[in-house]
Design brief:
alpha+beta, five-stranded mixed β-sheet, 7 helices, globular
Length: 237
């Protein structure tokens, strides 16, 4: 089931307290409309009752879709530099819920789940899209790496991510996006889906990077660019 907590959040514009139902655990198998809301960008968003400012909370939840085989620990993009510690937390949570520390029924469900760790709404939307289109998220991250090798300029900054946004008509549309700055799209890049297919088919040439990207729960090309020592400590659940 999905779990929400009721909390008062200060409007960033006028300071008035706004009552929010904050998602802590989302089971989209029982609430398909929540999956749609995440994809549309309307999940955990509302307007201030006083000044009408649009407010969207950063994610801090678990995401479960048993039918599609997805389990994700979703955290704010601001927590990105804590990815090493949060990978350990994700591993522990999955083990307790669906892994070796869970009961027999839960373990049988967990055998069909792929656990992941993501930071920010665009990263979660991307994982859902990849799954929906029948792609492999490891190969998508390798595709990003290959794409960046062909670019003359790469906006290397911890706030800027390369995200898959659309897959249709034999094309993949990627965007450079500044997540903390309101998910601002900085640039759009389009390449043929055949580019992805070639990388996925090259098991030997891409294997060393494939192993690095898929080493644990944070399956993201950015893990290769970040410092391995987090700058702060992870607190809470």
């Amino acid at each position: 089931m999905s779990v929400f907590s009721r909390e008062n959040i200060s409007c960033p514009s006028c300071g008035v307290l706004v009552r929010f139902h904050i998602a802590r655990s989302v089971n989209v198998g029982r609430s398909a409309e929540m999956r749609d809301a995440i994809l549309s960008g309307s999940f955990q968003a509302m307007r201030c009752t006083n000044c009408d400012t649009s407010i969207r909370l950063d994610p801090f939840m678990n995401y479960l879709d048993i039918e599609r085989g997805q389990w994700l620990l979703v955290r704010s993009h601001a927590d990105l530099m804590d990815w090493v510690l949060l990978e350990r937390k994700a591993s522990s949570l999955f083990s307790d819920s669906f892994g070796e520390k869970s009961n027999k029924i839960a373990r049988s469900i967990g055998a069909g789940l792929t656990p992941r760790l993501v930071f920010g709404w665009p990263a979660l939307q991307e994982k859902i899209l990849i799954n929906e289109k029948g792609l492999d998220d490891v190969e998508v991250e390798l595709t990003k790496i290959a794409l960046m090798r062909h670019l003359s300029y790469i906006p290397l900054h911890q706030d800027i991510d390369l995200r898959l946004q659309r897959v249709e008509d034999g094309e993949m549309e990627f965007v450079w996006i500044n997540t903390p700055a309101g998910e601002v799209v900085l640039e759009t890049l389009i390449l043929p889906l055949a580019f992805y297919d070639e990388i996925a088919a090259d098991r030997e040439g891409w294997q060393p990077l494939r192993e690095q990207v898929s080493a644990s729960y944070f399956v993201d090309a950015k893990r290769l660019m970040l410092e391995e020592t987090p700058v702060s400590q992870v607190e809470g659940g």
